[in-house]
């Protein structure tokens, strides 16, 4: 299962795309590998952004990003690797921004993105069969937004996005064609998506009133009617969602100054809302392993509102959310941490520290605590985090254009 999580720490960057890979076998500890170049910025703007990364249990990876040419036009590019070390040449999929990429266990890759001039507000998609080439782009819909994309163990893919027309979705069965676009909520926004290897899916978003909604479905069968997980509240929204193969889900979101969470049983019932912390700032992340252990990652305002360190709260399977625990340095200036998990229970939380212009990550082996955060690289930009059995991968923008992988 591959799930794409997007980071909003920086919206527009003068940078290049970089990828880092770390393999996390059960009980093992290790370091992040040396970066490998993925792209070269185009002068004079040198703008690269929108990193998206996917990884499988074999270590195969797919990466997508967009850059800007000298005339201001923007283009989406992809590269793939069977081992995280040797990479294909970049393929330009077409004009646009905000790409998302997903990768199936057999090597089938899918990318979706938001088309831009001369085609404004169009959702585009391309597919690469195992060992093949990327297809010519197809248009999914004419009302676009930054997409979320995921793929199941059989290669079936589903995309969701929030646009002027609300929360929309389309699905792509393996070997088939994209479905017609469906509306999940005509006024929803900030949608997030999680899919498991068996093809179950959960989408979560907030409405304009601040209510938190979730809809369950499958990669090929669409979604059922949405349920209200949390009642409307002022400035409540921006959820993050994770789903394991048993059907259990973790849903975390921001209140005005709080972080809140709800969980879903394998039978599909959502819990009551739990407040994880007060004094919160920034976006949130969450992850869940095969046993139902979950992590929520978030930011709290430090003393004097001059620092914004990262915290985690952990949920043991069958238990209750634990207290907020500092995971970064106390003087870090974090915008939007991300979390990922392997089925065996290894967790990774990553964040960009604006004080030190450094991408940092902390890992926990199955059943263990988070270790001291590692300074992955000096960087300042957007990043993406993905995990699969035995692997965690970071991709970011800043400095050079590189990619790497390591097996521990």
List keywords for this structure.
408 residues, mainly beta, five-stranded antiparallel β-sheet, disordered N terminus, disordered C terminus
Description of the structure:
Residues 1-28 form the signal peptide. This is Exo-alpha-sialidase. Keywords: Signal. With 408 residues, this protein is mainly β. It has no helices and 34 strands. The protein has strands spanning 2-3, 17-22, 36-37, 48-55, 61-68, 74-81, 91-95, 97-103, 109-115, 122-128, 138-141, 147-151, 157-163, 166-172, 182-185, 189-195, 200-206, 212-218, 222-223, 227-230, 237-243, 249-254, 258-264, 274-278, 280-288, 294-300, 310-315, 325-326, 338-341, 347-353, 358-364, 374-378, 383-388, 391-397. The strands form eight sheets. Strands 1-12-13-14-15 form a five-stranded antiparallel β-sheet, with no helix packed on it. Strands 16, 17, 18, 19 and 20 form a five-stranded antiparallel β-sheet that branches. The protein has a four-stranded antiparallel β-sheet with strand order 4-5-6-7, with no helix packed on it. Strand 22 and strand 23 form a beta hairpin. Mean pLDDT is 88; it is low at 1-15, 23-29 and 400-408.
Strand proportion: over 45%
Count of discrete alpha- or pi-helical segments spanning 4 or more residues? 0
Q: Largest sheet, described in full? A: 5 strands, antiparallel
CA gyration radius, whole angstroms: 19 Å
Mean of residue pLDDT values = 88
Unreliable stretches covering 5 or more consecutive residues: 1-15, 23-29, 400-408
Structural class: mainly beta
Helix content: under 10%
**Distance from first to last alpha carbon:** 21 Å
Biggest sheet: strands side by side, in what order? 1-12-13-14-15
- Please state the overall shape, judged from the principal axes of the Cα atoms: globular
Protein name: Exo-alpha-sialidase
Keywords: Signal
